[in-house]
Automatic annotation (TrEMBL):
The lineage of its organism: Bacteria, Bacillati, Actinomycetota, Actinomycetes, Micrococcales. It comes from Microbacterium stercoris. InterPro entries: Bact_Solute-Bind_Prot2 (IPR050555), ChvE-like (IPR049784), Peripla_BP_I (IPR028082), SBP_2_dom (IPR025997). One of its GO terms (molecular function) is carbohydrate binding. It is found in: Cell envelope. This is Sugar-binding protein.
Length: 384
């Protein structure tokens, strides 16, 4: 790949301008900043994804790569297997090899300051992908979903499954008292706090009036977080809770707030092994989720998991590519939020997308009709 004109600015004034922009918070010299933007085929976009152990991130990486290549860009896509030093090294290598733009879904949102400083020094725009990068001025744009609303939707789906809300999210008048447990995502992922806060704000009225009780009493994010969003870790915690609080499986437990499908499946395995039933109809507690992973979509279709949140990663990839293209053309991406996402050094301009609650009754309309999954994939629980 030919290097961008950004690195070969020839006039003293242009060099001064590029350096000045690179040093300003939130402003990065755009590729082609000397007046003639290079063609897409002359540019390389480095794409750093956190892991291939999650179906969600595999789909994200593929969608971003495919759309960038369709637009004509060269792509250097790397997965870091949830290992922070590996991701740091991958980003350093992308910069060394001449990446012109970086799209980064971080493992730890606080661990990339050094790498992004190097990117800024070289005038490379950085787009944070779905996970905000914290503690650095050198992140230029953020593409994500409305993460607080995702948390609201997770709790809403739990309340629907428990019978307090109907399919439209309206109160049913149910006064029954029910017992739940809470799980949150990884504490080093900036999204976790937004998800958890949205969920807890939604559950608060029910906890306050006594209709809901958290059986273990564990209600703070520190107590319920799941490092690296790991399903096995969630399963072990659920097993420990069942032993300590629910008589090994004989106590009343009506629902579990789960923030991600991999965590949901671990929780469900623990509940089934403890004898709560193979599905909801047989007494399995209501479990929420997120990401519409095909294995969980099948569980929802089979009446085992109650719900998930559909975040269409194709749309997220499109937004990331549009942001990259804006920088490549010497401009800046369009933001629809310039207030919410403060990374500790700056408020990062962001583009937020919408998400949807998926339950059994709308799998076809939301996931199959949109082409996200096929009917055969839903039936099998495996992506073709």
């Amino acid at each position: 790949m030919k290097r961008t004109a950004l690195r070969f600015i020839t006039t003293t004034a242009a060099i001064a301008l590029a350096v000045g922009l690179a040093g300003c918070a939130g402003q990065t010299a755009a590729p082609g900043g000397n007046g003639g933007e290079p063609a897409a085929e002359d540019l390389t976009v480095g794409v750093a994804m956190p892991t291939e152990t999650s179906e969600r991130w595999i789909n994200d990486g593929k969608a971003v790569k495919d759309q960038l290549e369709e637009a004509g860009y060269g792509v250097d896509l790397q997965y870091a297997n949830d290992d922070i030093p590996t991701q740091q090294q991958q980003i350093e290598q992308m910069i060394t090899k001449g990446a012109d733009i970086l799209i980064v879904a971080s493992i730890d949102g606080t661990a990339l300051a050094s790498q992004l400083q190097t990117a800024a020094d070289k005038g490379i725009p950085v787009i944070a992908y779905d996970r905000l990068i914290n503690g650095t001025e050198n992140v230029d744009f953020y593409v994500t979903f409305d993460n607080y609303t995702v948390g609201v939707q997770q709790a809403t789906s739990l309340l629907q499954g428990l019978g307090y809300l109907d399919a439209d999210g309206k109160e049913t008048g149910l006064a029954d008292k029910k017992v739940i447990e809470l799980f949150a995502g990884s504490p080093d992922d900036n999204n976790t706090g937004f998800f958890f806060q949205g969920a807890m704000d939604t559950l608060k009225p029910y906890l306050d009036d006594g209709r809901l009780t958290v059986g273990s009493g564990q209600t703070s994010m520190d107590q319920v977080a799941t490092l690296r969003w790991d399903g096995a870790t969630a399963q072990k915690r659920m097993e420990d809770l069942l032993t300590s609080t629910y008589g090994g499986g004989s106590g009343q437990l009506d629902g579990v707030l789960a923030p991600y499908d991999g965590i949901s499946r671990g929780i469900i395995t623990a509940l089934q092994n403890a004898g709560y039933g193979e599905n909801i109809e047989a007494g399995l507690p209501v479990v929420s989720g997120q990401d519409a992973e095909i294995a969980s979509v099948k569980l929802i279709n089979d009446g085992v998991q109650f719900a998930t949140i559909f975040k269409d990663t194709r749309k997220l990839a499109t937004q990331a590519v549009e942001a990259a293209s804006a920088y490549a053309e010497g401009g800046e991406p369009e933001a629809n939020d310039t207030e919410t996402y403060d990374n500790g050094k700056k408020v990062v301009p962001s583009f937020l997308l919408e998400s949807d609650i998926v339950v059994k009754d709308n799998i076809t309309s939301l996931l199959v009709d949109s082409g996200y999954w096929t009917e055969d994939e839903v039936a099998a629980g495996v992506a073709e």
